[in-house]
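Reagents: none. Just compute today. Mini-circle protein.
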Amino acid sequence: MEFLAEPPMTLTAPDELMAEYLDFYRDTVLRKLDGLSDEELRRSRVPSGWAPLEVLKHLAHVEMRWLQWGFSGETVSEPWGDMECRGGRWRVGPEETFDELGAFFREQCERSRAVVAGASWEDRAATLGGEVLPEDERPALGWILFHLLQEYARHVGHLDIARELADGSVGE
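Predicted 3D structure written out:
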């Protein structure tokens, strides 16, 4: 499996940097999980109890919630489908597989790219997930993209640790 490299240092346009770094982190999530057994994907190695497969499902739903449901105002089924309840613990059912969740994740990322391609950084979220707020209280696309970037950076760090604890793999 071929994975993306970090974006080139010669990039200077903020929108290109953001798009390429988001894709780099999206790809890194899949790279961190590639090759782990089903047991390791479902096993938690941290006191808070999350498992690597739960992180994958969570990030797919984060993409859906922020860009499709919140920014575009689309109706989505189960926007909080990664959690036991809104704000609750992440969950993955025993019937859910890495292949299925990986495909769902890639689909959400592709839909996110399409949303971003049709908007400008200054555009405001449509509803922020069905919640009607005055326009000046809704985040701009640029804010949402930076939020997603920090979410990915944090969770990729978590997956770095989980992978090292699982099989000793370190780095990218």
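The CA atoms of residues 36 and 150 lie 25 Å apart.
Action item: order primers for follow-up constructs.
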